[in-house]
Amino acid sequence: MIREVMVSRLKEYFLSRGVELLFPEELKLDNNVADFFDLFLKDGNNLIAVKVYSPGEKLATHIKKELEILAVEVLKLKHFIDKAYIAVPEEIGLLKIPQEIFESAGIGVLIVSEKEIEERIPARAFKKLLRSVDEALKKEIQEFSEEITKFSIKIEKEIEKIKNELSILNKRMDFLYKDLNTLKREVEQLKNLQGKVVVEMKPVEAREETPVEGIEGLPDFISDNPWVSILVKRGREDGS
């Protein structure tokens, strides 16, 4: 049975069981996961992936080896999904399937024939430890990225605020610089005027002292007192 026919039969099988068919683009999976599996399905909370195997040769040893390799590849990607199946055509025979490996790994096996699809080995849910850790890590990275974005926006606002304040300071400095230049010019003008101003000083005539009559014979501390001479003169002027 060719690969395309098997995929079509599997879609009909899962849709008839009420399982939701998903496109890889909806899941935003890594390219290696989306390219490896052929079908993605949603059954309740479980994400199921199906890998279709169509052998090129019918040698039992060759088919068994390829199925073992497929099982290993599925296990490498198990933290992206909850359950996994490998679908094989009916004609390869049960003896060619490494049943113990699939059962131990929890990978289901679907036998696809023209009439029906048989779940030969049920799939078990993978342990979600790695997946939960991965999701938690992604969540932390997302939260950290959001915090970085908020911080960047805050920093940009602060930088813009500082730029505005610097612009205001520059304008004030320009005004101060202009005022300083004005003061310098005024000082220079005052210096120039100071050199041209001439102050004329008139000499003060010394008053000639005339001796006062009538105080001879008085003690020196009285006769030498200028106030005594003034009082004597005023007395004479009043008497005349």
Structure, explained:
The model has no long low-confidence stretch (mean pLDDT 80). The chain folds into two domains: 3-127, 3-Layer(aba) Sandwich (Trna Endonuclease, Chain: A, domain 1); 128-184. The chain has helices at residues 3-16, 24-27, 31-36, 60-76, 99-105, 129-196, 220-223, 226-239; strands at 20-22, 39-43, 46-52, 83-89, 108-112, 117-121. It has eight helices and six strands. It has 240 residues and is α/β, with parallel strands linked by helices. Strand 2 and strand 3 (46-52) form a beta hairpin. The termini are far apart. Strands 1-2-3-4-5-6 form a six-stranded mixed sheet, with helices on both faces. The protein is rod-shaped.
Number of helices: 8
Supply the number of structural domains.
2
The shape is: rod-shaped
Summarize model confidence as the mean pLDDT. 80
Query: What summary fits the major beta sheet?
Result: 6 strands, mixed
Low-confidence stretches: none
- Fraction in helix: 55-70%
Total strand count, please? Answer: 6
Strand content: 5-15%
- Placed side by side, the strands forming the largest sheet appear as 1-2-3-4-5-6
Per CATH, the class of the largest domain reads Alpha Beta
CATH fold name of the largest domain, please? Trna Endonuclease, Chain: A, domain 1
Radius of gyration: 57 Å
Order of helices and strands: HEHHEEHEHEEHHH
CATH-defined architecture of the largest domain: 3-Layer(aba) Sandwich
Question: What structural category do the secondary elements indicate?
Answer: alpha/beta
- Separation of termini? 165 Å
